[in-house]
Amino acid sequence: FLDRRFPIRSQTAWFKKARRKRVGVRHKRSDRSIAAAQVGKRLLCDLLVYEPTMYAVFFSSMAFLEGGGLSDAKFRISTLLLPTYLTGLTISPIIQSINFAFVPLIYRVPFSSCFDLFWDSYLSWVNNEKLAMIEESNE
């Protein structure tokens, strides 16, 4: 979706220098600046739309799968979503910027999956710690 919505003419556009120097004509934006803007747009969409949505889906689905109800899902989302999102903002922009700017489309899923393995482990740890806190408070 992001590739179609915010296209970059080529993966090498990031490295290209502006070659359009015409006398008397206003300079157009360079391929590099256009590519940087498109990467920035992709990154913003990913960070502002995709990530919070996926965290909410993860915590709510874990609540239901672990036998909790709607109130447990709401509790997990209200207590875990913001801290997890803020933690994700420390590393996700770096990984996704590299992914969007330099990695060809065919290799993006394997590239991001390498980092997602560690991030998913962190999400499971956060979910488990909060589950333990909920159980302790109920006892």
From TrEMBL:
The keyword Coiled coil does not apply. It is found in: Membrane. Its main location: membrane. The keyword Nucleotide-binding does not apply. Keywords: Membrane, Transmembrane, Transmembrane helix. Coiled coil: none annotated. One of its GO terms (cellular component) is membrane. Pfam families: Mpv17_PMP22. It is a multi-pass membrane protein. Belongs to the peroxisomal membrane protein PXMP2/4 family. This is Protein required for ethanol metabolism. It comes from Coemansia guatemalensis.
